[in-house]
Amino acid sequence: MIGLGVLIAIIAGSTWPDTRSIYSVGDATANIVWLGIGAGLVSMGVLAAFLALHAVAVGEVTEEALLRHENKLREAERARIRGL
Predict the structure, then answer these.
(1) What pLDDT does 1 receive?
(2) CB 3.0 to 4.6 Å from 41: which of 5, 52, 54, 70, for a disulfide?
(3) Are 21 and 40 contacting, i.e. CB atoms less than 8 angstroms apart?
(4) Is residue 12 packed enough to be buried (19+ CB in 10 Å), middle (13-18) or exposed (0-12)?
(5) Backbone angles phi, psi at 19, to 5 degrees
(6) Residue 78: half-sphere exposure toward Cβ, Cα within 13 Å
(7) For residue 3, how far is the Cα from the chain centroid?
(8) Model pTM score
(9) Beta carbons of 31 and 17 less than 8 angstroms apart
(10) pLDDT means over runs of 10, the chain (84 residues)
């Protein structure tokens, strides 16, 4: 998605009308729209990457918490059995 956004932004930038020439009457509205679309795609790609990293981190923390809880339950059961 990031690559597609960069590609669209590059194409929009490279087809920008030449406003330095007095003979060129180019309208940059379409290019501005395409630059916005490209920037939006890049932003969504970056956000997706950050969300994926966050999901991995949350998964690791959750797994560690579940293992600690399981170990506490095992120790409590062992203590209960020893106490009988």
Answers:
(1) 76
(2) 5
(3) no
(4) buried
(5) -95, 0
(6) 6
(7) 13
(8) 0.65
(9) yes
(10) 82 73 66 86 92 97 97 94 84
Contact between 45 and 8 under an 8 Å Cβ cutoff? The reply is no
Looking at the chain, list the stretches that DSSP marks H as alpha helix, in order from N- to C-terminal side. Answer: 2-14, 29-83
CB atoms within 10 A of CB 67: 10
Token reading at 17: 């009308």
- pLDDT for res 26: 64
Place of tokens 């209960």: 80
CA distance 44 to 6: 12
